[in-house]
Structures are given as structure tokens and as C-alpha cells.
Specification:
2 copies of one chain form a homodimer. Chain A is an all-alpha fold. Chain A folds into 2 domains: 4-49, Orthogonal Bundle (Arc Repressor Mutant, subunit A); 58-193, Tetracycline Repressor, domain 2 (Orthogonal Bundle). Chain A contains 9 helices and no strands. In chain A, helix 1 packs across helix 2, helix 4 (52-71) runs parallel beside helix 7 and helix 5 crosses helix 9 (173-188). The first copy, chain A, is elongated. In chain A, 39% of the residues are buried. The interface between A and B is medium-sized, with 27 and 27 residues. Chains A, B: Residues 30-49 bind DNA.
Chain lengths: 196, 196
């Protein structure tokens, strides 16, 4: 039975692992280092996780589910009145920047170029592209736009803006959401669908 | 005096170095490896370069001068009739994708996250942002656009599109130039400046 004290140990192990994975890479981080940094024992680690790999999978699964809320936001654009599309897109981008900025260690881990990180990235690109293609069939998005190419641009830009502005504290999620949301929305929308 | 044979050796050393730097990183590549891969001797290397560092500087200086032709293209937008802006921007993006695609090793080296690569990237972002700010003062670019933020997005997108489409041979420079050029131009332009 996992007690409250057990939950606290588990959280400490996760926080320790996230910090080390982000700083040194997953490969270079050992279970001994994770437990030492958390002030716990190897036995404590293996009470909660089968292996480092299982822990990484759990961390990224959770992160992915939280990301899905934002990457799937384009799905509902077709149901909105034209004047509300821009607000919806800006809010979605701002929410995404907030999630990534509140979880900078997980963001760094996911973007580290590991196989799992690449899969996560490809999945995000696909979801954004699928929703964009759907909005294209509804004539919201310009017909000559290539959804996958634009989705790749969006993901690359979001990554860069998080490193450049969120991790340095130079801009907040709302400022980035407004700029990136408008930039990409105006870049892909059919003219008559934009407010002004 | 450097003979034609000397020039050929120098070119072989440069090609060998570019390939190894791109594949293994600058730090992990030694002069011995560069000369072995080129089928030459250490003596040949030191005939043309003082050190590995000097060679890296020369490679990136040359690359930077060639990149400048494209990153500075926004400077002349204000002189163009409105209808020609889009063509000019598309041609510029296509030229940039062609240069990066024709020099994939140098592109990888420049983007490797070395100090010099970071400087090069920052310089490109600044040039694009400066020209965008100038075009904003001419009312070509929308007033609320933040030039540096958009320039960061442009550079991040170009990098990603090169890796994803040019290095895999999936799309050519013209296709990418058209898509990226239109995406970012429409994202930042004042409405009345776009053709249709």
C-alpha cells in the first residue's frame, strides 16, 4: 500500500529524475544519481519504478496527454463563428506556451532528440496537420497550404520561442500566444475569415 | 606558392573536415581524422591551416557571407511595388533553402549549438528582425508584429524544414520557398499590401 509518505518519495524521485534528465540527458543519468539527488535509496526507487526506462515512459506519457489538449484544439475551429477563430487560436497557443513553460524540464527531455521524443514530436505535428487539413476542407484554411509543412513550422517555432523567451523569463505565455497565434493564423487562413 | 595540386589538396581537406564535423561534431573530430579521411598527411593540413579552430572559423565565415545575401533581402522590400513583394519574398526563401540544401554539412555544423553557431544564428535573426522593423516603419508590416520574435520563428522553421524535407529529398527548395514565403509574409503583412 502506498502511503502519503510514499507518494512524497515518489514525487521527489520524479522531480529529481526530471531535473537530471533535462540537464545531462536520459542516457547519461543513472538510477543511483536519481536517488542520490532525491536523498533516497535505490530500494525506494524500485518500489515505484521497474527501471529508468519505465520511469521515462511514464513521464513522457503524462506529458503527452497534457500536450494533446492543445495540439488537438484546431479540431473545433470549424464550429466557431469566423470572428472567434482568432481568439480561440491565440488562447490555444498561450495555453501551450504555459504548459511548456511550467514544465521546462519535461520540455527539454521531450525535445532531446531521443527516439521517444521524436515520436512525440511527430505525433504532435500529425495532429496539428490533420486538424489543419480538415479546416482546409471547410475552406477556412487556404487551399494551397501544405498542412504537414506548416505544422512542422509551428512546432519548430514553438520550441524555439519557449527556449528564447519562456526559459529566460523575457516574455510570458500570453504575449507569445498572441504573437505566434496571429502569425500562423494569418499565414494560413483564407482572407475573408479574418476579423481585420 | 600554392599550386593547382595544392588547391586540390586544400579542397579535399575542407570536404573531409565538413563531413566529419557534421557527422561527429567539431569537438570530437581531430586533425588526424581529417587528414586520414582526406587521404593526406598532417603536414598537408598545416600547410593550409594553423589549426582545426582556424579551419572552422574559415568555413563558417564563408558560409556566413553567403547566407547574408538572403538574410538581408528584406531590406529592399520597401522599394518594390506591392504586387511584387510576394514574389520577392518567395524567391528569397527559395534561394535560402537552395543554399542550405546544397551545403548540408555546413548547415549541420552551423546549427550544432557551438558558440560560433549560436552567434551566426543570432546574427541572422537580428538582420531579419532589423529589416522587418524597417518595413514596419514603412507600414508594410502590421504594427503589432514583434520583429525579433517573428525572426526567431522564421529561422527555427527554416532549420526544421531543411532537415525534414531538403535533407531527405522529399521537397525541393522552390516548393519550400513558396510555402514558407507565403506563410510568413501573410502572417506579418498589412492586408492591403498582399496581392490576393
Amino acid at each position: 500500500m502506498v502511503s502519503t509518505k510514499g507518494e512524497a518519495s515518489r514525487s521527489r524521485l520524479i522531480a529529481s529524475a526530471e531535473e537530471l534528465f533535462a540537464r545531462k540527458g536520459i542516457h547519461a543519468t543513472t538510477v543511483s544519481q536519481i536517488v542520490a539527488h532525491a536523498g533516497l535509496t535505490q530500494a525506494a526507487f524500485y518500489l515505484y519504478f521497474k527501471s529508468k526506462e519505465e520511469m521515462v515512459t511514464e513521464l513522457l506519457d503524462t506529458f503527452e496527454r497534457r500536450l494533446d489538449l492543445f495540439t488537438d484544439a484546431g479540431r473545433h475551429v470549424g464550429e466557431l463563428p469566423g470572428g472567434e477563430i482568432e481568439d480561440h487560436v491565440i488562447r490555444t497557443f498561450a495555453g501551450l506556451f504555459r504548459l511548456l513553460g511550467d514544465n521546462t524540464n519535461l520540455t527539454r527531455i521531450a525535445l532531446q532528440g531521443t527516439d521517444r521524443g521524436e515520436l512525440l514530436r511527430d505525433r504532435i505535428v500529425s495532429r496539428i496537420a490533420d486538424n489543419m487539413a480538415n479546416n482546409q476542407s471547410l475552406a477556412i484554411v487556404r487551399p494551397e497550404v501544405e498542412p504537414t509543412l506548416v505544422a512542422e513550422s509551428v512546432v519548430a517555432s514553438v520550441e524555439r520561442l519557449v527556449y528564447r523567451y519562456i526559459m529566460t523569463g523575457e516574455k510570458d505565455a500570453e504575449q507569445l500566444g498572441r504573437q505566434a497565434g496571429k502569425l500562423f493564423l494569418r499565414g494560413i487562413l483564407n482572407h475573408h475569415r479574418i476579423g481585420g
